[in-house]
Amino acid sequence: MKRAVNKGSFFRFSLVGMLNTAVDLGVFFLLSLSSLSVVPAQVVSYVVGMLNSYLWNRRWTFASTQHRSFGELIRFISLSIITLMISVGTLHVAYYYFGIPLFTSKLLATLCSVLVNYVGSALWVFEQLHEQAPPLGKSKTP
Predict the structure, then answer these.
(1) 135 to 1, 115, 117, 140: CA distances (angstroms)
(2) CA 130/CA 133 separation, integer angstroms
(3) Nearest to 130 by CA among 116, 119, 141, 142
(4) How would you write the pLDDT of the chain (142 residues) with one tens digit per residue?
């Protein structure tokens, strides 16, 4: 069995993560500017980023051509809920308790969620898919 965490999947995960971060930040600040409070704006922007993440990570990062399984979907949703709680908790504490500026608080929450999400995705959600994905720059056939 290949190691679930490797440079190729982390690089692809990072690129997808940058796209997710742009989507998440864009939605978050649009909602914040429309006078939605911080926590609901975080939840909505996170869900939009999460959907983007699932589509890109399943198809590209971990290169799955298999049909989605119910177990994979449950693992993805479970990890997303855990990551969302960490993200919202970090944002809330940083912004409301420590008085860290909103943008910096959002970036801190994003950093925490990226770390949890990558490890959970690579080792748990897409574990079986990852075993079949070739390393970055290498084909599946010799």
Answers:
(1) 13, 20, 20, 9
(2) 5
(3) 119
(4) 344 556 677 788 889 888 988 998 899 989 989 988 888 998 899 889 888 888 888 878 776 656 667 788 788 889 989 998 998 999 999 999 999 999 899 899 988 988 898 888 888 887 654 444 445 455 444 4
Structure tokens of 9? Answer: 């999947």
> The pTM is what?
0.65
DSSP reduced 3-state for 16: helix
Token pair 């809330």 is found at: 92
Q: Which two tokens stand for residue 33?
A: 């500017």
User: What does each C-alpha distance from 84 to 33, 46, 92, 106, 112 come to in angstroms?
Assistant: 21, 7, 12, 12, 10
Q: Which of the 8 DSSP states describes residue 57?
A: I
Q: 61 φ, ψ to 5°?
A: -60, -50
Give per-residue burial for 35-60: e unless 16+ CB within 10 Å, then b.
ebebeebbbbbbebbbebbbebbbee
Closest CA to 17 of 64, 49, 58, 65: 49
Show the tokens assigned to 91: 């944002």
